Amino acid sequence: MNDPRLSSESLADAALAAYENVLGATPGFRPRAGQHAMAACVADTLARADLGEHATPTKAIAVIQAGTGVGKSAAYASTAIALALARKTRVVISTATVALQEQLMAKDLPALAATLGQPFAFALAKGRGRYVCKLKLERLAGSGGSHDALFDADEDAPTATRYASPLSEEAIEERRTRLYETMANTLASGSWDGDRDSLMDTPDPRDWSMVAAERHTCTVRHCPRFSGCSYYQARIRLSEANVIVANHDLVLASLGMKTLPDLDNCLVIFDEGHHLPAVALDQFSSAMDMSNLRWLDKLPKTLQEVSSKLSLHVGEDVQTVTSQLKAALTTLARMAMDLVWAQTGKNAHGEGQDGTLRFANGVLPDELVDPVTQIHAQAAGLSKVLEAVGVDVKAVAKEDPSQAVLCAQMYAQLGALAPRLGSVVSTASLLLEHGEQPLAKWLQIESAHGYLTATAHACPIVPGDLLRQFLWSQVRGAIVTSASLTSCGSFDYFLREAGLVSNPAVQALEVASPFDYAAQGSLTVVHTRADPKQAEAYTAEMVRLLMADIEQVQRGALVLFTSRAQMRAATDALPGHLIDMVLVQGTQSRTRLLEAHATRVASGMPSVLFGLQSFGEGLDLPGELCETVFIAKLPFAPPSDPVDEARAEWLRSVGRDPFNELVIPATGIKLLQWTGRAIRTEADRAQVICYDKRLTQQAYGRRMLAGLPPYRLETRQG
User: Fold this and answer.
1) Percent of the chain beyond pLDDT 90?
2) Is residue 701 predicted with pLDDT exceeding 70?
3) Whether residue 174 is found in the same domain as residue 267
4) How many C-beta atoms lie closer than 10 Å to residue 192's C-beta?
5) 1 occurs within a structural domain
6) Same domain for 561 and 684?
C-alpha cells in the first residue's frame, strides 16, 4: 500500500539519493552518466506505481536497454530496494540464468546490504523440485531404492537409456541405496539443508527425481514431516525477505499460486528480460508421450491400493477406462508414425526414423480428431477421479492424525501419476482447440537405443498475448532490463514479443555503454566468394578462412557457430598444430572448459573456444581471455522449428511479412549479443570478425548492423 504522506516525487528522490549514497560508499566505484540515468528512470517508474487495493491503480513499467558496462544491477537494486523499504513492500528480482542469480546472491546484494544504510533481508526462490522430500528419502533410504513402487519415478525410461553406465542393475541399485542413506544421514545431522544445489556432488537427475519434493505428491500440513520440510522452511525464509531473487520460469509458473508475493503488491525487476517471450511460450506449451505407457498400468492398481488401505470409494470403472485410454494412445502413436514416415519417406524398418510433422494452419487432420477427442475425454475423467481420491486422502489425514504417514505415502503415489495424466489432458485439449489465432501443433518421432518414441505437441505462437493476459494484467510496477532489448536500433520487436506494445504504462529507455567501441575495437566483415545461402560451399570457404585467422590468435578467442554441423566441420579441419589450442563446447562441462581456457591464457598460451548460441550470450571473458570473436555466419534460427514455422504461416495468411517482422529482428538481437562478447571492460581491446558478407551487402544486414555497438567497421576480401 502507498503511504499517503509520501508523494511519488519524494519517493523517487529518496530512492535516487540512496543509489548515490551507495556509490559514494563503494570503494573504487566511478560515477557513470548512463547508470545514473537508469537509476533515475527506475526510481521514477517504481515510485509512480500504485500497489495494493486501488479502484483504478496507476501502472508503470520501464523497458531499459543498458549496454555492457553500465552496471545494471547496481542501478536497479539500490534504487528499487530503497524504494520498497520506504513503501513497506518487497522486491522480486527475476533472472533468466543461474549465473546472474549467483552473482546477485553472492556478490551484488551482500555488497549492497553493507552500504545501503538500511538493513534488508534477501533470499533465493527455487521451485519445489530443488528440495528433497524427507518422507520419500526416509522410505528409500530404509527400503534400498527403486524396488519400492511408490518411488519408481523412472519406470518408463527404456533400460538402455536410464544410465550411460556400464554398471549392472544390481550395482546401480547398490549405488542408489548408498546415495540415499548418505543424504538421509547428512540431513538428519543438520549438515545438509535439503537443497539439491548445496550437495557437494550433484546427483544424477534420475536419482534425484525419486526424492524431489513435488506439488502433486505433497499433502502440505497433513504431512508428518511438514514442520521440518526443507521446501517449506525455505518458503518461511522467503516470507521474511525484503528482496526475493527468482527466475522467469518460476515467476510465470507461480502466477496465482502464492509461491511468490502478489505481483500487484510488490515491485518487480526482470533482468535478462529479453528471455521473457521464449519462457512464456515454454510455460504455456504442452506435450504428451504416446509410447511409454506403463504408468497407465499402474494407475488402477494405485487407486485400488489407496482406496483399500484407507477405506475409500472409487466410483468409476477405472480399470476399463484406463485400458481404453492406453489403447487409444497406442493407436494414435501408430497413426503418428505412419503420418510422419509418409511425409519423410521413411518406414518402421529403416534407419534414421526420426521425423517431425507439423499440421498446417494448426488444423488437426480429420482422421486424428476422433482419437484425440476420445483420449481427452478418457484422460479428463481419470484425472477427476484421481483428484477426488486425493481430496479424500487429505480429509482422512485431517480427521485421523494417526494415519498421517500412511496418507502422505498414499497421496504421493497418486501424485506421481497426476502430472502424466495432466499432460495428456492439456495436450489433447490444445490439439482440439481452434480459434482466430492458430496454435503450433506437431507430431514427433524419435529413436534412441533401438526404442521409438512418439509425442504430440501443441504451443501458442504469440508470446506477447500470453504475457499481456497472464503477467502484465497483474504487475503494477516493473522494470524490464537487458543489454539486448533493441533490434536494428529499435525497441519495437521486443515490445511486441513481450506484450507491451501500445501499453500507455510503458516507457522505453536506451542507456548507452560507457565503452568507446570505435577506439577499443573493430568489426571486420569478410566477403566470401561463396554465397552464405549455399551451405556446403560457404562452410568450406568459411572454415578455410577461419583456420588461417586462428593461426594469428596470440591469447584468448571465441568462435561462435550457428549449428553443430558447422562446428564439427571446423573441428575436423583443425591442423595438428592447432588442435591443442582449441576447446570445443560439449567435450566437457562449460565450467571446466572456461577454467581450462583461463589457465591456458594465464600461462601465456593461445586458447580458442568453439561454441554455439549458449556461448554467444552471458559469457564474460574480459581482457586477454577474449581478444577476438569470430562469427561463422549470421545467427538466423533454424527454419524447421515448428513454432516459428506456424507463426510465419499465420503472419503470411493475414498479409504480413514474417521475414521482416520476426526473422530479421530476432537475428539482430542474437547478433547484438554475439558481438557483445568482445568488449567487456573499459580497458579491453578486441576485434570481431564476421564471415557473412550479407551484413554489409544486404539491406536487412545493414539494418542489423545499425543496431550493433559502434565498432570501427572494416571489410576484407576472403
Assistant:
1) 79
2) yes
3) no
4) 19
5) no
6) yes
Say whether both 208 and 109 belong to one domain.
Answer: no
Asked, for residue 682, whether it belongs to a domain, the answer is yes
Angle between the N-to-C axes of helices 664-675 and 699-706, in degrees from 0 to 180, rounded to the nearest 10: 50
CA angle 656–659–663, rounded 5-degree value:
125
pLDDT at 138 over 90: no
64 lies in the same domain as 87: yes
Asked if 560 and 628 sit in the same domain, the reply is yes
Residue 3 lies in a domain: no
Residue 2 in any domain: the answer is no
Q: Say how many domains are in the chain.
A: 4
Which CATH number is 556's domain given? 3.40.50.300
Neighbouring C-alpha atoms within 13 Å toward the C-beta of 140: 32
Which segments of 205-275 does DSSP mark as H helices, in order? 205-209, 230-239, 248-253
As given in the structure block, the three cell numbers for residue 616 are: 554467444
Q: Which of 475, 490, 511 is the last residue of a domain?
A: 511
Q: Report the distance separating Cα 270 and Cα 64, nearest Å.
A: 10
Sign of CA dihedral 686, 691, 697, 700: negative
Q: Which of 295, 148, 136 is nearest to 208 (CA)?
A: 136
- Give a three-class secondary structure readout of 412-478: HHHHHHHHHHHHHHHHHHHHHCCCCCCCEEEEEEEEECCEEEEEEEEECCCHHHHHHHHHHCCCCEE
pTM of the model: 0.91
User: For residues 23 and 113, what is the distance between their CA atoms, to the nearest angstrom?
Assistant: 13
At CB < 8 A and 24+ separation, what contacts does 162-165 make? 162/206, 163/204, 163/206
User: Do residue 223 and residue 330 come from a single domain?
Assistant: no
Furthest C-alpha separation in the chain: 81
For 210, the domain range is: 128-230
Q: Which residues pair with 365 in a beta bridge?
A: none
What residues have CB less than 8 Å from 171, skipping those under 6 apart? none
Q: What are the cell numbers at 418? A: 497426476
Q: What is the pLDDT of residue 611?
A: 97
Provide DSSP, 15-67.
HHHHHHHHHHHSTTPPP-HHHHHHHHHHHHHHHH---SS-SS---EEEEEEE-
Nearest to 555 by CA among 609, 619, 612, 485: 609
Q: What pLDDT was estimated at residue 316?
A: 73
All three cell numbers of 589? 562441462
Task: Determine how β-strand 628-631 pairs with β-strand 686-690.
Answer: parallel
* Phi/psi at 631 (5° precision): -110, 110
CB atoms within 10 A of CB 522: 17
Q: Are residues 537 and 489 in the same domain?
A: no
DSSP classification of residue 131: B
294 plus 393 within the same structural domain: yes
DSSP-derived secondary structure for 626-679: -SEEEE-S--PPPTT-HHHHHHHHHHHHTT--HIIIIIHHHHHHHHHHHHTTS-
3-class state of residue 441 by DSSP: strand
